[in-house]
Amino acid sequence: MSTKIDLEQEGIEVKKACCYFCHQNCGCLVYVKDGKVVHFEGDPEYPTNTGGLCCRGNVNMIHLDHEARVNYPLKRKGARGAGEWERITWEQAIDEIGTRLETLRNQFGAEAVATAGGTARTDDWARRRFMNLFGSPNGFHNSHLCWIPTFMVETAIYGWSPFEIDLGLSRCLVLWGQNPGASTLPEMSGISALKAKGLKIIVIDPRFTETAAKADLWLPLRPGSDLALALAWINVIIYEGLADYEFIEENCVGFNELMEHIGDFTPEWAEPLTGLSADLIRESAQMYATNKPGNIQWGVSIDQIGKPAGAAMQARAILRAITGNLDCPGADLLTGPSQEFVTDEEMELNEYLSEEQRAKQLGSDKFKLVTWPGYGRIAEITKKYWGKAPTAEWMCEAHPPTVYNAILTGKPYPVKALLVSATNPVNSYGESKKTLAALKAVDFLVTCDYWLTPTAMLSDYVLPIAGSFERPTITSTYGCSDFLMCSQRAIQPMYERRTDFEFWRDLGIKLGQKEHWPWETLEDAYLYRIKGLGYGVESYDEFVENYRFHFPEREYFKYKSRGGFATPSGKVELYSSVLEELGYPPLPQYIGPTENEIDNPELAKEYPLVLTTGAGVMPFHHSEHFQVKELRFLRHEPHMQINPDSAAEYGIQEGDWVWIETKRGRIKQKANLTEGIRPGTVFTERGWWYPERDMCDPELGGCLESNTNVLTSTADEDCDPMSGSWANRGLLCKVYKVDGADRTEAR
Ligand SMILES: Nc1nc2c(c(=O)[nH]1)N[C@H]1C(S)=C(S)[C@@H](COP(=O)(O)OP(=O)(O)OC[C@H]3O[C@@H](n4cnc5c(=O)[nH]c(N)nc54)[C@H](O)[C@@H]3O)O[C@H]1N2
Ligand SMILES: Nc1nc2c(c(=O)[nH]1)N[C@H]1C(S)=C(S)[C@@H](COP(=O)(O)OP(=O)(O)OC[C@H]3O[C@@H](n4cnc5c(=O)[nH]c(N)nc54)[C@H](O)[C@@H]3O)O[C@H]1N2
Ligand code: SF4
Ligand SMILES: [Mo]
């Protein structure tokens, strides 16, 4: 007897949805009966996960109806943070929020309303559209820490960011501060398969990670010293004659200036700065330059080293160019924006924000690259060349710490309202104590989330958001990829949850933006975006069911067919005229790690260890999923890593609770002694809070107790001067055992 179920006879529909718990958006087949999910599994036909799901992905059904989910709009009743809520309707919520924003705009100007987001999760073009029409330039994310500065530096130098890599044909892969073995699991299996076929792998990471285990060369550098290493690699490649002189001759400007500039940055110079031997620096540079084609895949670390971040991105960009590893088979590809579908930027209505309001964007006077001055210039160049600009929602943001400061000080002008969507700033932005103070100080706070996070707990309104399986999804890299991977909604949102898109649309309509929001559902908006692709579909669902993906034919050497690169000179600008125009060094100048023993000897006396905060660990995604006991079971408590030699020096043993302290504050995590981290370096996990504890203020789920962002720095002088990204990696700290008396077990 066959045990195969006849789905049709059972009334079960199979939907092509996706897991929504990280950027991978792994394809899922979701089995739906009577509007309810009865089963799901990885979609074997989805090109990235090919049927697999990680442990986090496997809790999708638990997440869908978890007892801690926010299911109805909530309005604060008692004091801020007291946890007393009144259930209201969406209509009442939108009406009251809209009225309040209108009043604030009349009194303080539209710029007094700011919005905060997190990692690319939802349709942020809708938020930007709302903000442009409302008149405020103060939308922001913490993506300042996550690729945005990289994208803009690379686009300044060669007209787009080569974030798509042609790995199948590559001979050498550099994973620079990236650990796909814990952060990008579907990709890791592909890398392992290529390694078996001879791909050379170089891993640059202070920790011996899941990925370092696959490396031909592992470079355990001092956190934050990436710039010194990149400069030394350029030196080796140029002075050992390993550069691609034909590519340089034909396609680059500024090589002579670069050659002169780089002469002193030898491997011997970099040795004491990076803690890597000159021989290893030389050998790794040679491996990258001689195994062509090769890739330097983006990893998040360089975006997070603070002061030297922008210069390190410049140096990394130059490495690709001088080796000729740009836009050829097997190399890092300059795809440009899609020429075929409506991009995120085209959905944003940036032209509606006046010059006068653009000029008020907070932080744009100090950090010019990912704010209106730099974005405006780069958008002008890319529009001329590609016909389109990068997504403004990500590449042109207010500077988050400057917004929090404006809330706290009223300077340079007051910020009175903050709308938070898809982020938990207390745990994910920098200098958490300051961020928390700003969230408490702001006059009007609204949060859109699945959970009552510490941030939501402080809010005046909390809106219940539809998540995995309850919403359609278009996956594209911060709206900048030229391909589409599409998933459909498996079920209508449960309870009274809605998508973020509906929140911004309804709020926009309340504030007189009706004519600009023609699409009633997210599917309608998506259909508008893909209609021009020529598949002849009548609905978005029809597209997903029949096609699901759109991958344009790969075209190499676009700079040949298009007559150059999208830069002012039409060449790869090793000496960057765009950066120079913005007032930044056109060649990468050496800047030491944000805090270090050479530039800050006094600080190093008190805080003798080097700190790096963060790195993705399974099963959590930033500060998400800590409520889900099936995941918490896998990682019950926060752990810091320290080398046994350093631990012995400070009397720390495996499993001890320890304080980790920087000049900004201290947190506690449990000690994990491991040879897999370089001596003198401390690594802390990110995201931690304890939703099982009292969530009311001041406890707020212990959101500062083990939260690594208490330790990080957002001081202007510690930020990258170009982008304003702040410092999470390459700081100074000390560690000491938690006294029996002040020890709290994580519950
Ligand atoms: N110290 C340190 N700090 C870091 C990092 C680090 O390595 N070290 N990494 C940085 C990086 S790379 C990033 S990208 C950021 C991430 O920072 P965030 O994106 O702010 O990450 P989370 O703290 O997990 O907050 C996401 C919140 O959004 C909710 N959510 C998820 N999906 C949706 C949705 O579709 N709509 C809505 N409305 N809510 C949703 C989740 O429940 C969660 O509460 O953190 C950065 N912070
Ligand atoms: N499990 C899990 N997966 C995730 C996430 C998550 O929170 N959890 N977040 C997602 C997001 S938004 C992002 S952006 C990606 C990021 O994913 P990745 O780009 O892989 O970045 P991380 O995992 O943050 O850090 C990678 C490695 O950098 C090393 N590192 C620390 N400091 C330095 C330094 O100064 N220099 C160098 N060269 N290396 C250093 C760390 O030891 C770590 O192993 O992961 C995504 N995937
Ligand atoms: S959480 Fe896991 S299953 Fe879900 S998208 Fe990310 S890697 Fe895929
Ligand atoms: Mo990220």
Automatic annotation (TrEMBL):
Enumerate the UniProt keywords alphabetically. Answer: Iron, Iron-sulfur, Metal-binding
Task: Using the record's annotation, list all stretches that form the 4Fe-4S Mo/W bis-MGD-type domain.
Answer: 11-68
Q: Which SMART domains match?
A: Molybdop_Fe4S4
Q: Does the keyword Iron-sulfur apply?
A: yes
The record's annotation in SUPFAM superfamilies points to: ADC-like, Formate dehydrogenase/DMSO reductase, domains 1-3
One GO MF term attached to the UniProt entry: iron-sulfur cluster binding
Family matches, as Pfam families: Molybdop_Fe4S4 (PF04879), Molybdopterin (PF00384), Molydop_binding (PF01568)
Q: What is this protein called?
A: Dehydrogenase
Q: Which organism is it from?
A: Desulfitobacterium metallireducens DSM 15288
